[in-house]
Design a protein that fits this description.
Layout (H helix, E strand, L loop, with lengths): L18 H37 L11 H37 L2 H14 L4 H15 L1 H11 L16 H25 L3 H9 L4 H12 L1 H16 L3 H6 L19 H8 L6 H30 L8
Helix pairs in contact: 1-12, 2-3, 2-6, 2-9, 2-12, 3-6, 4-6, 6-9, 7-8, 9-12, 11-12
Length: 316
């Protein structure tokens, strides 16, 4: 009778975790939790302070209007100015990013990249002063031309503002402010396009623009959308530039060249908060809560778009 010996299975050695790895992992986890705590704290503060305005009768609110009636023109102005900025800045940012990543010589590309990034460091109040002192007077002729030849479109119906402090100018100023954000994201996305895809397109006889259209832009579509959403979030929350440029009348209108303009939520809070008291403060905080929810929704949408295509990768 023979017996068979069973060879024991060797144990797999556990990876040794270094102290530095544990410290880094703990720091990263703590930073993530801290951000969530801060966000929850801001949301709790806004809800707590806005609650008296939410339950107060309309007769006690500013202007004796319903809270929705008070906030709606501000929300409309916020969305309109941000949308104008996004429509103007996004194509320009894509063109600048493509020039830096695929057309400009290396030295010029580096210098231009630094210059575009420097725009993000300029304080918003400087943009506001530039808008009201330079851009607004210079745009009167353009707005007059738009009213003369395109006045049948509600956007340019007029009457044209004599000072140039219009929603169109505010949108242009915001477009310059969000241009560095969108450009930076688009530039990094274009630089990460699969090199083999670009070389394959050129090898098949495609021109440089055809290669960009077939290989670069499809690869960076989700990055471009997320960058545009980040820029939109910045435009939604801008305060001083809009407060300085706009000539506010509190109306809801799509007319971009007249002197009657809706204000934005952030600009209205900045202008009204120093003199507000009692329930007026709660009303302003309630409008801030609306802006918080809108900005949060925009950023969540951008994250959803990025995550939806995160599984896609190309050969580099």
């Amino acid at each position: 009778m023979t017996t068979t010996e069973v060879t024991p299975t060797p144990r797999t050695a556990r990876p040794v975790t270094q102290l530095g790895d544990r410290v880094f992992a703990g720091s990263a986890k703590g930073a993530g939790i801290l951000i969530l705590v801060v966000l929850a704290g801001v949301a709790a503060f806004l809800l707590t302070e806005a609650f008296p305005a939410l339950v107060a009768p309309a007769s006690e609110l500013p202007g004796e209007h319903n809270l929705a009636v008070y906030i709606w023109p501000l929300l409309f102005g916020t969305l309109l100015s941000a949308l104008i900025a996004l429509v103007i800045a996004t194509p320009l940012a894509i063109c600048v990013a493509l020039f830096i990543s695929h057309y400009a010589p290396r030295r010029i590309a580096q210098g231009l990249g630094y210059l575009v990034d420097l725009l993000a460091a300029v304080p918003s109040i400087v943009y506001g002063l530039w808008g009201v002192g330079v851009l607004a007077p210079a745009s009167v002729g353009l707005m007059t031309w738009l009213n003369d030849y395109l006045g049948w479109i509600p956007l340019f119906a007029g009457p044209v503002s004599a000072t140039g402090r219009t929603m169109l100018v505010a949108g242009l100023v915001l477009a310059v402010m969000i241009l560095p954000i969108i450009t930076a994201v688009a530039r990094e996305v274009f630089l990460q396009a699969p090199r083999l895809h670009e070389e394959a397109a050129l090898a098949l006889g495609a021109t440089r623009w055809e290669m960009i259209k077939m290989a670069v832009l499809p690869f960076g579509r989700s990055g471009l959308i997320s960058g545009a959403m980040l820029g939109l979030g910045r435009a939604l929350g801008e305060t001083m530039a809009v407060a300085i440029v706009l000539s506010v009348s509190g109306v809801v209108t799509f007319n971009l060249v007249s002197s009657g303009n809706p204000s934005s939520i952030a600009a209205n809070i900045a202008l009204q908060f120093p003199e507000a008291s009692g329930l007026g403060v709660n009303v302003l905080i309630a409008s801030g809560l609306v802006l918080f929810l809108v900005t949060l929704a925009v950023n969540m949408l951008a994250r959803y778009i990025v995550n939806r295509r995160s599984e896609f990768s190309g050969a580099n």
